[in-house]
Amino acid sequence: MRGKKGGAACGDRVLIQPTTTGQGVIESILPRSSLLYRSDAYREKLIAANVTQIIIVVAAVPSFSEELVNRCLAAAESQRIKALIVLNKSDLAEPTRVAASTLLLYRELGYPLLQISAKTDVASMLPHLQGHLSVLVGQSGMGKSTLINALIPEAERATAEISVALDTGRHTTTHARLYEIDPDTRLIDSPGMQEFGLHHIDGADLAWGFVEFHPYLGQCRFSNCHHTGEPGCALDSASKTGEINPRRLVFYRKLISSLGAALRK
Fold it and tell me: Could you give the count of Cα atoms lying within 13 Å of 151 in the half-sphere of its Cβ?
């Protein structure tokens, strides 16, 4: 960037001014169709721009965070980005069966759920990538780099063994990088994350990040209902009657609580 650092994200389209052979400066960033980023109370971290699909990579070993899955889905919905959940390491049969049972909820909500083993066969993933600029997101240790290497062997992304004792992965990807599979299909690998902050989403809009809530929004007794236990809350009633899964309402309430009272005003 001319005169400053940062501002551009992987996937951005930019105008550049060549300076010397093989070098140049970014003069401007062209308008974006989407911008995926995470944020906490103090800063924002750009993940990728102009993506049309977010691929949430999870695995049974090490165990994945369902809260992180919910946060990624809410971020995707806020940007109107298609979401795909990939359950990797399906060669680990019994742990994968348990993980798939947990993830069945999201398939029922309409999110595609794909079970693969990046070490053996990723062919079933290719149709889901076609025509998209996708970004892989997820915790360290889920096998994102192995998946990239299987799809794009020349990428040669570094991989590392997981820590069984700590039930965690080891951080190997340090920056986002875009790969072209064909002229219409591109894939961004992003560093592993343990958290996905959503402080940039207004508290009043957060419920729209949960697709099954949509029919009930605006139906509460009070127009300013935050769906955190207020009397006459339509989401609360729908949860109690099984029209929406109580797990998702719990995740929503935990998420809005984490954003702080200021966002709920």
Answer: 28
Long-range pairs for 234-237: beta carbons < 8 A, 24 or more residues apart? 235/207
Task: Give 70-99 pLDDT, tens digit per residue.
Answer: 999 998 998 899 999 999 999 999 999 999
Q: Which neighbouring-strand residues pair with 15?
A: 28
Other residues' Cβ atoms within 10 Å of the Cβ of residue 104: 11
* Domain chopping of the chain, boundaries: 35-189, 206-264
pLDDT score of 264: 44
CB count within 10 Å of CB 191 equals 16
- Tell me whether the omega of the peptide bond preceding residue 62 falls within 30 degrees of 0, making it cis: yes
CATH superfamily of 35-189: P-loop containing nucleotide triphosphate hydrolases (3.40.50.300)
Q: Which CATH topology does 206-264 take?
A: Ribonucleotide Reductase Protein R1; domain 1 (1.10.40)
117-121 average pLDDT score: 91
Half-sphere exposure of 117 (CA within 13 A, CB side): 10
pTM: 0.85
Output the CA torsion 72→77→81→83 (10° steps).
Answer: 50
Query: Does 139 or 194 have the greater pLDDT score?
Result: 139
Q: Is 130 exposed, middle or buried (0-12, 13-18, 19+ CB in 10 A)?
A: exposed
Backbone φ and ψ of 2, nearest 5°: -75, 120
Q: What's residue 52's pLDDT?
A: 97
